[in-house]
Every structure is written in C-alpha cells, then in structure tokens.
Specification:
The structure holds 2 protein chains of 2 kinds.
Chain A: H1 5-34, H2 42-79, H3 90-96, H4 101-125, H5 134-161, H6 170-175, H7 181-184, E1 186-187, E2 190-191, H8 192-215, H9 221-252, H10 272-298, H11 303-339
Antiparallel strand pairs in A: 1-2
Helix pairs in contact in A: 1-2, 1-5, 2-4, 4-5, 4-10, 8-9, 8-11, 9-10, 9-11, 10-11
Chain B: E1 4-15, E2 21-33, E3 37-41, H1 48-55, E4 63-68, E5 71-72, H2 78-84, E6 88-91, H3 103-108, H4 118-131, H5 147-159, E7 165-169, H6 177-190, E8 196-200, H7 204-208, E9 215-220, E10 223-227
Parallel strand pairs in B: 3-8, 3-9, 6-7, 7-8
Antiparallel strand pairs in B: 1-2, 1-4, 4-5, 9-10
Helix pairs in contact in B: 4-5
Classes of the chains: A mainly alpha, B alpha/beta.
C-alpha cells in the first residue's frame, strides 16, 4: 500500500459515506418495519421526523461517496500511472491492484446507480406532502447498503494491494487479449462489424423509443418507458464495447489499441469523460424513467410529477445518446474524409 | 380559505434537566373555527406558547396532529409545511425585529416572497402600520423603539400579508391601556369570515374586553379545556 494523499482522501471519503449511509439505513429499516401512516402515535410521529433527517443523511452519504469516487477515478486515470512503474494509463493501475480495481469500480457504479434511483424516488415522494413513497424509498436505500459495503471493502483491499514496486505492462494487458489479427477484429467470437451494426440498430431503436416516451401522454407511459429502459440497458454495454473496439481507434489513430483508460488521458483531450458520462446518463435514466412510470400507474397522486420526470428521463437519454453518437462518429467521419478509408 | 384548524390529541414531551420526560401538553384536542377569535389563557409556563408554535407549524408535536382543512399539516415534510406556513401570521412573545432595518422594512420582510412590486410592498406595509396606529414610525430603525412599539410593529408584520390564520402570543403584554385597546381593535378589524385568530394571553384586559373573543380556552397542567 502507498500512503498517497489522493488514496487517503478516497478512503476517508468512503468511511464518511459508509458511516452516514449506515445511520440513514437504520432509519430506513425502521421505516420498512414500523411505518404506519394512519397512526398519530408518538412512535410514528418520531419516525416521520427521523425519515426527514435520514434522507438528509443519505444525501450527505451520496455526496461523500460521489466525491471519493471522482477522486479515485481521477487518481486511476491521471495521477497514479506516473507512480506505478510501467503504467501508462488506468489499465496499468488496475493491473497493479491485482485484480481488485475492476470490481471496486463496478460496485461503486452499482451503488451510485441504486442511490440515484433512491434520489429519484425521494424527489417524487417530496412532491406530495403525505410521504406516500416512504417505505418504497427506504427499501431502495436499504438495497444500496450491501453494494456500498462491497464497494468500500473492495476499494480498501485494492488500495492495500496496490504494488508500486512490481512493474506492470499495461500495453501487454491490452494486446495480449488477441493472438492474431483475426481475433483482434472480433469480441466474444462475434466480428466487430456485427457489434457496430448492433450498436447502430440499437441507437436508432432507442432514439425512436426515446422520442415516443417524450411525446407519450401520462396514461400509456409504462410500456414505452419499459421499452426505453430495456433498450438503454442493452445499448450501454454495446456502445461501450464499440467505443473501445472500433471508435477509439479514431482518437488513438492506432489500430487495435482496445484500452478504455487511454481515453481519459490529456493526450486524447480527456474525451473519455464526456463519452462515459453520456453512457452513465443513459444507463441511469432508463431505469429511472421506467420506475417513475410504474409509480405513476400505481399511485394516481403522482401522475403529473412522474410523467414529467419520465419525460425528462427520455429527453436526457436522447441528449446523451445524441452526444455520444456525435462524439464517436465525428472523428471517424473526419478520418474517412481525410484519408478515404475506415480504420478497421 | 381555511375552514378550521384542528388540534387532534396533541401531546408534547420535553426532556428535563435530570433526563426525565416531562409532558408539556397532554392529549390536547380543540377546533379553532374561521371567522372567530379564540383566546387561550393559562398560567405562566402552562404551555400556551408551545401550543401556539405547534399550531403555527413551527414545532412538531410528540404525538397527535394538527389538521388544516382536514389535511395533517403538522406531519407534512418541511418543504410542504413551510409552504403552508405562508398562510399563517405569527406574533411572537418577543418581537424579534431586525434592529438595523427600519420599521417599514421589518414589516414588509415576510411579504418579499409573495409580492414583487416595491410600491405594493410599501402600500401593504404602511396599511398594516396604520391599523396599529404607528404609521409615523415607518422610517425609524427598530432599535429606537420602545418595547410596546416593537410589539405593535411585530403585530403589523404578522397581519401585513393578510394571513388566513393569525396566531398571537401575549400581544398586549407590554402595552398601556390605550395600546392594548388599539391592538384589540386591530384584531377585531382583521376578523374576516376566512380568518382563524388564536391569541394566547393572561392579560385580564384581553379577557375582559367585551366582544373581543368568540371562544375561550384554558390551558392548565398541559390540558386544554373550553370555557363556557
């Protein structure tokens, strides 16, 4: 382990967020088991007050966790490669964590996704004075706790195992994935051109579905939002895959350099930040729009607010998908116009 | 328009200096109707101010609820309760004026979120001051006023927005006979069919003033009972 201030900041942020989330989870657990909206007894009134404080605590937990995740991300992508021998980008840093860096980031993103859903629930709940969604909201928050624990513990282990004396070879990690040119042009046995076709098909379907969800009236929203959420969940990994396998070549100007982390380097103008931000928006907003549509169908009191939120989700998905497609296709088109060939 | 403000089985416990729980209010239930002035009397420390704070949405009870138009406003989350509180004008026991501001500025302060036009703000503020007979103090800073004048400014501040619910805590405590009469006249003038007025007082002048109170309650040992 190295006592780098950035890593210490991550661990302190994680610890703070964990403590705050556990405090909020205690109230959430009580809400799930004891919530009685028809009662005016002392226990219920105390619980109503505690729920408000718990929501605030969970928001602080989210802020601390988001901040520590961003610091960790910047550290992996831009700071630690200079310390770890042989590392040229985040791939080398992840390699130096001996297999724990990837899972740590995965659990972090999963926690953030669940807490984002909780935020959407909370915002919808606070649009009415009666706290109708208190129990549902508490359940979503409780769901985030095990993933948060996993994220924090895996990050701690990854930082602990970070070896700065053993050189890594991040280019080998990228290029060792394929034995010959043929295997470089396919992923999971499927040619990259097929993945590309799948990406464009899913993009068109998602944009069409997004436009439908944006324009649909409140009544028929569940089916359209469900389709959009499903397409968003299919589109995101496909888009990430074609970004790394196909479109990244136009940024790197090198063939078969299938590295996601190099996109975050200053050499490539930090283009990974807007690209992965767009992917995150799509994958978060899809389920959020669907969840609000379901809630609107279940609780008529939320019809208008939920329909507005669902429309916002559709609009955000459209903008993010449009932004992503623009960012990946523009360099490719420029390359084609300049050199007359595609990079493949 | 509020048809009634209802206290439903309200209790409030406070932790004493020795850590024990002390009941300030015990199962208080009452209905305060619109168009009426209700007086709550009781000895010092009986819990009148606490009850008024609960009715105004400034304090949450430990048990029970406050219903405004059959909606449990005391149990709403802070954002919604704060929005509802715009309908409530409160005269606190201590005037709590901002001393660096002028009297008129103090009065128009709670109107700022509701009224954009400065001329309208001034007009509303001056009208409220005129009702209390202190329009001549409008330009003076708060710290130059006497205790009685400060109290009248606080009342003007509460009535300036023409609240649907007017809650006053000992509004005549620092007043001479003329001042007390002016305040009572003002409260009677503010009594509209849509307004609920609740006054906590142990000032005998208020209790004895003919035609002032429509209903009287007495708070003793944390229990509220309606007087005939």
């Amino acid at each position: 382990m190295i006592r780098h201030p950035l890593l210490l900041a991550v661990l302190i942020g994680d610890l703070c967020s964990l403590l705050l989330l556990l405090a909020a989870a205690k109230t959430a657990l009580k809400t799930v088991t004891e919530w009685a909206p028809d009662s005016t007894a002392g226990g219920q009134i105390r619980l109503e007050r505690a729920v408000e404080i718990g929501e605030l605590t969970a928001r602080f937990a989210l802020a601390a966790f988001l901040a520590s995740t961003l610091v960790l991300f910047v550290g992996i992508a831009n700071v630690l490669p200079a310390i770890i021998p042989g590392a040229m980008c985040g791939t080398g840093v992840i390699q130096a964590t001996q297999g724990l860096g990837g899972p740590a980031l995965f659990f972090r993103f999963l926690t953030l996704a669940i807490v984002y859903l909780w935020l959407v629930f909370g915002k919808l709940n606070s649009s009415r004075p009666e706290s109708l969604l208190a129990v549902g909201s508490a359940r979503v928050l409780l769901l985030a706790v095990p993933f948060h624990l996993l994220a924090v513990s895996t990050t701690l282990q990854a930082v602990w195992r970070l070896d700065v004396h053993q050189p890594v070879d991040c280019c080998a990690a990228v290029y060792d994935q394929f034995k010959n040119l043929g295997s470089a042009q396919q992923t999971a046995g499927i040619p990259n051109t097929w993945w590309l076709a799948a990406f464009w098909t899913l993009s068109l379907l998602m944009i069409f579905s997004g436009l439908c969800a944006w324009r649909t009236a409140a009544s028929g929203r569940v089916k359209v939002s469900g389709t959009l959420a499903l397409l968003a969940l299919l589109w995101t990994p496909t888009a990430a895959l074609v970004l790394i396998r196909v479109f990244a070549a136009y940024y790197y100007e090198v063939l078969h350099h299938h590295c996601p982390w190099c996109l975050f380097l200053s050499d490539h103008k930090f283009v990974g930040i807007p690209l992965f931000f767009c992917l995150a928006v799509v994958v978060l907003e899809g389920p959020a729009g669907f969840a609000t549509a379901i809630l609107a169908a279940k609780y008529p009191q939320f019809v208008l607010t939920a329909a507005r939120r669902s429309k916002t989700a559709a609009l955000r998905i459209l903008l993010a998908a449009g932004g992503f497609i623009g960012l990946v296709s523009l360099p490719a088109i420029c390359w084609r116009l300049q050199y007359g060939v595609w990079l493949r | 328009m509020q048809s009634a403000l209802v206290c439903q089985d309200i209790s409030l416990w406070r932790r004493g200096w020795d850590g024990s729980q002390r009941a300030v209010l015990k199962n208080v239930s009452a209905v305060f109707k619109s168009g009426q002035i209700s007086i709550i009397s009781g000895l010092t420390g009986a819990g009148k101010s606490t009850l008024l704070h609960i009715l105004a949405g400034l304090l949450r009870p430990s048990q029970g609820q406050v219903l405004a138009d059959s909606r449990p406003v005391s149990r709403w989350n802070t954002a919604h309760r704060d929005r509802w509180r715009r309908k409530v004008g409160v005269v606190f026991q201590h005037p709590r004026l901002l001393n660096e501001l002028t009297v008129l500025e103090n009065v128009i302060l709670p109107l700022l979120p509701r009224i954009r036009s400065l001329s309208r703000l001034r007009r509303c503020g001056n009208e409220a001051l005129a009702k209390l007979g202190i329009a001549h103090l409008a330009g003076q800073p708060g710290f130059t006023l006497s205790g009685g004048e400060q109290q009248r400014v606080a009342i003007a501040r509460a009535i300036a927005s023409q609240p649907e619910i007017l809650i006053a805590d000992e509004p005549t405590a620092h007043q001479d006979a003329a001042g007390a009469a002016a305040i009572m006249r003002c409260f009677i003038a503010c009594r509209r069919p849509a307004t609920i007025t609740i006054v906590a007082a142990h000032d005998a002048r208020l209790l004895a003033y003919g035609g002032f109170a429509d209903r009287q309650f007495e708070l003793a040992n944390g229990c509220l009972k309606a007087l005939p």
